[in-house]
Amino acid sequence: MDIGSNAIRLQITNVTHFQGAFGLKKLEYVRFPLRLGRDVFLNQEISPGSRSKFVRLMGVFKELIELYEVDHYMVCATSAMRESKNGEEIAQEVADTIGLHIEIIDGDREAELIDKALWSSIDTKTYLHVDVGGGSTELNIYKKKQKIGSRSFKIGSVRTLDEHHVPLSIWRDMEAFIAEHLKREQSVTCIGTGGNINKIMELSNPRKNKRYLDKHTIQVVQERLLSYNYEERMHVLNLNPDRADVIIPASKIYLAAMDAAGSSRMIVPDVGLKDGLMNLLFERAMSNQTSPIR
């Protein structure tokens, strides 16, 4: 389970084993648009209304975990809950009343988990991985299949809905981090993860099996999005209400990272934190852990 700033995702996966080979088959995927970041980035804590809904949602997800007879699970909360004054308190309430353990992770741990899902996309070239969430952006830099830099920045799609929430100094800091690690690189390919870049990919009408975008295409999609108001993005472009507003600030973050890296191409592998969690759970299960993972 991935408890993000814009939405909460639950994925249940079955491990298959045939002729000596293991595979992962998705059984259930639920995304609930509970925007915890809206409260936290405005008031530094999760409101009573959101808290009540969140605890109820955790109860529903726990029921699904039990109905599917899940052997191993992991629940991670990111930017909104780690910055909320009452995040730890709410996590404890969920543990006490529902019996579901929530691990509130920092940006470095978040990047490390996403690494596990990304590895198949990395070869010996130079890559900048840009993971844009609701409250933060995680950057990872790879050269010759080695990670040479990793950092989390308080720049996210929900947080930047109000530009006053992100000082210009943080944008400059992100650009400086990228430039410092990639200043001598002639060719850098970006890897984009997060729900917004996948939706941008979809809106670009890609060829079948195409999993990359060039910078110009992202700009064209961004201009198209800007040409519609919020209501039109929902009804003309068929975007969900919690996607129709954040997709534009998210596109600005991806493009800013590409500009800083001097990159014109972004691979979009359609993986994220939940996939990293799934890989970690599989590794632990293969190490003969038999009890539910907390």
Protein model, in words:
The structure is a single chain. This protein is of the alpha/beta class and 294 residues long. It has two domains: 117 residues, ATPase, nucleotide binding domain (Nucleotidyltransferase, domain 5, 2-Layer Sandwich); 167 residues, Exopolyphosphatase. Domain 2 (Nucleotidyltransferase, domain 5), CATH 3.30.420.150. It contains twelve helices and eleven strands. The longest helix is centred in the first third of the chain and has 20 residues. It is globular and about 50 Å long. It starts with a strand and ends in an 8-residue tail after the last helix. The C terminus is likely disordered.
Question: Characteristics of this structure?
Answer:
294 residues, Nucleotidyltransferase, domain 5, 2 domains, six-stranded mixed β-sheet
Q: How is this structure best summarized?
A:
This protein is α/β, with parallel strands linked by helices. The protein has helices at residues 36-43, 48-67, 79-83, 87-97, 107-118, 168-182, 195-203, 215-226, 230-235, 241-244, 247-261, 273-286; strands at residues 2-3, 8-18, 21-32, 76-77, 103-104, 126-132, 137-143, 146-153, 189-193, 212-214, 265-267.
Element order: H for helix, E for strand: EEEHHEHHEHEEEHEHEHHHHEH
What is the number of helices?
Answer: 12
CATH topology of the largest domain: Nucleotidyltransferase, domain 5
Quick one: biggest sheet? 6 strands, mixed
Helix content: 40-55%
Q: Shape from CA axes?
A: globular
CATH superfamily of the largest domain: Exopolyphosphatase. Domain 2
End-to-end separation in angstroms reads 12 Å
If classified by CATH, what would the architecture of the largest domain be? 2-Layer Sandwich
Q: Structural class given helices, strands, pairing?
A: alpha/beta
The number of domains is 2
> For the residues shown, what is the average pLDDT?
91
